[in-house]
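Quick one:
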Amino acid sequence: MHTHNLLELNSNENSLGMAESAKQAIIDTLDIGFRYPDDQRAALISKIAEINGVAENQVSLGNGSSENIRAVLQMLQIKALKQGQSLQVIVPDPTFAYAELYTHSIGESVVKVPLTPHSHDLDFDALQSAADAFAGISLFYICNPNNPTATITATDKLKSWIKNAPAHHYFLIDQAYSEYITDPDFESGVEWVRQQLSDNIIVIRTFSKLCALAAMRMGYAIASPKTTAAVEDFMSIDNTNLSGAVAVLATLNDEAFLAHSLRTTNQSRQMIEEALDELGLRYLPSQANFIFHEVKGDVQTYIDRMQEQDIVVGRAFPPIEGFNRLTLGTPDEMAVFIKALKRFRKKGWV
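Output:
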C-alpha cells in the first residue's frame, strides 16, 4: 500500500490526483457498471481522433499504453514469421523498459544502443548500424521525450531518419509526456502519421501523466489505418473499462484541470532547476514531468538516504552514472525535497 507520509517522486505519476470531474464521472456511471461500455468506448475513440486530427480507424485503445506496446511487438513478430524471418527490437539505453521486457517474453532479440555521452541523446549512426546488420524486421522503440532523461530528440533529424528508412524498419514512438513539451521546434509523431510520412510509424500516448489517471490504465496508439488494423488484431477485445473511459472523457473536457496540471508541473520544474543551479548540480533540459539531475557521490547511497527522509526518488539508470531521476510532484512536495537536498549538501553528501 502507498503510505501517505511517504513522498513518492519515483514513478512519474501526477501528484495532483485525479480531476474532481473525473471522480464525479466515475460515481455517476456506477449504476451502469453491469453494462458493457461500448458507447463510452466509442465516444472516447471519437474524442481521441478529434484531438489528434486523425480518423477513428487510426486509433487503438490500450489498457494503458503498455498494452499497445505489447500488441505492436506481437504484430511484427507474426509478420516476420510469415516472411520466414525474425524480429529484433532496437532500444536506446537507458530508456523506458517495457518494449525490451515484452520482446524478451516473446523470445525475440533486443539490441541496446547507448545514448551519446554527455548530452545523452539518440546515437542515430549506432541505431542505424544495429538495423543494417540484421536481415529481418527491426523495430526502433523511441521514447520521446525519453525516460529517464526527460529530453527530446532533434525533430528534423528524427523525421528524415524515419522518412528514409527501408520498408522492414518500424518505429514505435512513445510520447507519454508529449503534453509537457515546450520546445517550439518539436513536431509530434502524430503529425507525421497525418502527413503519411510512413506506414511504419506507430505513436503511443497515455492518460497516466498530465491527466493523472495512472491507476485507470488508459492509453492509445495512433498509426495509419492499415497499421492500426494490424495492431488491433493483437489487442484484447473489449479492453476498455467503464470507469477509465468516462474518467478520461471528463478530464479531456476539463480544460481548467488540464491547464492547472500543466502549470503546476512547470512551477515545480522551475523550483527544482533553481535549487539545482544554486547547488551547481547539472541537469538535462526537461521536457517532461520529471528531471534527470546530477548527484555527487554514489547514487544508490543517495537513493537510500532520501528513503530515510521518507522521500522516494528514481532508481539507478545504468549505463548512465552519477545521475538521478526525480518526478516533479506538487510545489509543496518540491519544497520538502529541496530542503532535504540542501541538508544533504551541508553534510557534503551531494
